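Supplementary Methods, section 5.1.

A reviewer requested that the exact input to the structure prediction be made available. We therefore reproduce it here, unchanged from the version used in the analyses.
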Amino acid sequence: METIPFRTLTICGIEELSAPREHSVTHVLSLLDPEWPELDAFEAYGDHHRTTLRFHDIIDPLPGKVMPTPDHVAAILRFGTELADSGAGLQDGHLLVHCHMGVSRSTAAMLSLLAQALPEEEEDRLFARLRHIRPQAWPNSLMIGYADDFLGRKGRLTAALRRHYGHQIKHEPSFVDWMSSLGRSRELEMAVVA
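The structure derived from this sequence is encoded token-by-token as follows.
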């Protein structure tokens, strides 16, 4: 089965960055709040390439907050293109994508990178891969919508996201209260529960 060209794919939150890893990390995509300080955890990592983007994990405008934009998702996809063009990770690479909790921005970024690397892969299978990497994945819907447009998926990623949300609610009902408390009710309304 074809996959993104890294031996290991990891998604995590900030608190998990210092956890021991079976394979050393070679590439990092950090998605941080704009006001968050630089992270000390990476000082303990070996030689690695790191790209940092700063925006908040929101889906509606809020005063003083930076929403995910098409430019942010374009930067994530450029990161993926640069990795593919460099041949990075083909043998022993370990790509780590993280955000604050490892639930929304980072999972949306990883799904975007998977969809980019696997243009023929069916969308529901991409989300199944994502759940395998990070079972608690709840990708930011704005980011997935932008990726859908950039990758020419014609709404199929967004449709699969609706089914993914439904899957997550069915298997972990606590998502309903959690996402409601974060102001993400619109995503709950998107969910298609089988």
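Strands lie at 8-12, 27-32, 49-54, 94-98. These observations are discussed further in the main text.
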